[in-house]
C-alpha cells in the first residue's frame, strides 16, 4: 500500500523535559561495588592464583624478621647457609612482610580522572582497583589505609583490617568524589589551600609512615609540563627509597590517540581551558602524537628513576588480566 | 555602481551586531564541549588555522550579499550595440598626400581606420566609402574584417575634394529603415573639411539626423595646410556626433581610442541583485557544507 493513512498513536507518552545540567551518573553504593568486585575480579584471580597473592602484595623486602628452621614447603633459595653451617640444621630467612604487611593506597581523584571513553571512567577504574586491593588485604587480615585527594582536598583513612575497612575506604573516597563534582558543577574554583595534588599527598604520607610499607600510588600521572620533570617525582623517589612502591597508572586509550572526530571543542578538566581544534587535521594529530610521546617518555624516565614497579590499567580493559600478569611478574622476580 | 533601494543597506548594521555577538559567544565557554585531559597543552602545540572560521565567514558573507542584494545594486556595463553598420567615409583626394601629419595624411588615416575597426565588436558591419571629386562606396557594410583591411590597404588617390559626396555615399549605404531593435548606424568621416561641390553640408547633416545617424568627424590635417575644421565641427554637432581634430599621428590614435569606446558599444545599466543572490546562495551552501563536513560528532 503506497499511501497509508496516518493512524493515531495508540500509546501516549509523556516525556519529562530533560534536565538542563546533565546529572552525574548514579554510582552504585560502596557495598555493591565491593560485592561486584569480589565476584567478578577476586573469584577469577583466585582461579589462577589459588588465593596466593604473594607477589602482588609481598614484594621484595630486606627487612629480616627471623631465621627459623626449615619446614617442608619452604623455598630452597631462602635457606640461610651461614646459619645452617653454624648450627648443622637447615635454616631459612623469613622477611617481615611475609608475616604482616600494612598497605597504603594513594588515590588520585582529581578532575583529570573524571574522563573515560571506553568501559568506565578513569576514576571508576581506580576505585575498582582500590576495592580489589582492599578486599584482598582484608581477606588476609592485613592492614590497609588510604589517602585520597582531589580538588576538594585530601581524605585519610588510617590503616585498619577487615571487610568493614574496605567498605569504609570506598565510602570515604565516594564522599570525596561527590565533593569534587560539586566543586566542578558549581563552577567555583576551589581555593588553592583546599586543592590537593599528588605531590602533597606523597609528602603527607612520607611524613606519616614510620615502618616500611607497601604503597600503591593510583593516578593517571599526567604532567602539565611534559618537557619538565613532574613535581611529584622527588617525593616518589624518596618514598620508593624507604618503602615498596607500586605506581598504578590509569589511562584511557583516547589520551594516547586523539579520537578522529572532526572539529571539537575540548575542555581541560583541570584548568577549564578550552581549545577548538580539528581532530582530523593531520597537523593537529601529529602535534598530539608528539605531545603524547614526550609525556610517555618523561613518565617512563621518572618512574624508572624512582625504581618503582608499574602496573598500567586501561579503562578499556577489565582489571583482572593486568593484575594477574603483574602478580606473576613480581612473584617471578623475588 | 548604484543602488535602486539604498536605504536597505542599513540592514548591514544588523549584520555588524550579529558579528559582535558571534565573537562574544566564541570567546566564552562553549555549551557543547568535550572533556579532554591536557587539552590546554594541546592548545599550545596544535597549529591554529583560519579553517575553523571559514563556515562562519562564508555565512556572514552570504548574509551580507543577500542584504546588499535587497538594496538592488546596479552596474553600468558597456554592452555591444546592435548597429546597422559603421561607414568610414575617407577622403582620397590628392591633398591626402600632404606630409603635415607624418608620414603623410593618407597613411596615418589608413592606420587610424584599421585601429578603429579593431576596437569594434566583431558582429558590427563595417563599410568604406571614399570621396574626392565624387563619392564611391568602396565596401558595402560587412562583418568580413579581411575584406575591410584589403579595401583600406588599396585606397588610391584621385582629384578634387568634396566631403559632402562622401557623406551622401555613406548615407546611401546605410539602410533607410533599419529593422526593429537595430540602431540606424554611424558614419565616421575622415576629411580635411573642404568642399567645392556646392552641396550644403548642413542639409545633408539634417538628413542624417532625421534618419538617426550620427556623424563623427575626424579632421585630418593641420592649420595653414589646406584644412578647414569649422564645417566638420558643425556637421558633427548637428548630428550629435563628435569631432576630433588631428594634428599628428599621435592625436589620431587618441581619437580612435576615444571613438572606439563610443562606437558600437552602448552603456547600459543592469540590476546585479540576481548575481549577488546567486553568490549568497553559493556561499551559504559552502558554509553549511563546510561545517557539516568538519563536525563529525558534536
Can you offer a commentary on this structure?
The complex is a heterodimer of chains A (334) and B (298). Chain A is an alpha/beta fold and 334 residues long. Chain A has helices at residues 30-49, 81-87, 122-139, 162-185, 198-208, 233-242, 253-256, 282-306, 320-333, and strands at residues 64-69, 91-95, 102-108, 143-150, 153-160, 214-219, 244-251, 263-267, 274-278, 309-314. In chain A, the strands form 3 sheets. In chain A, strands 5-4-3-6-7-10 form a 6-stranded mixed sheet, with helices on both faces. In chain A, α3 (122-139) links the parallel β3 (102-108) and β4 (143-150). In chain A, α5 packs parallel to α6 (233-242). The radius of gyration of chain A is 24 Å and the shape is globular. Chain B is built from 10 helices and 10 strands. In chain B, strands 6-5-4-7-8-9 form a 6-stranded mixed sheet, with helices on both faces. Chain B has helices spanning 11-27, 39-45, 54-70, 105-118, 145-153, 163-173, 201-210, 229-239, 249-262, 273-294; strands at residues 2-3, 34-35, 73-80, 86-91, 126-131, 135-142, 186-191, 214-220, 243-246, 265-271. The mean pLDDT of chain B is 83. The two termini of chain B are 44 Å apart. Chain A binds chain B through residues 112, 114-115, 220, 222, 224, 226, 254-255, 260-278, 280-281, 283-284, 287-288, 290-291, 295, and chain B through 29-30, 32-43, 45-47, 49, 51-52, 293-298. β8 of chain A pairs parallel with β2 (34-35) of chain B.
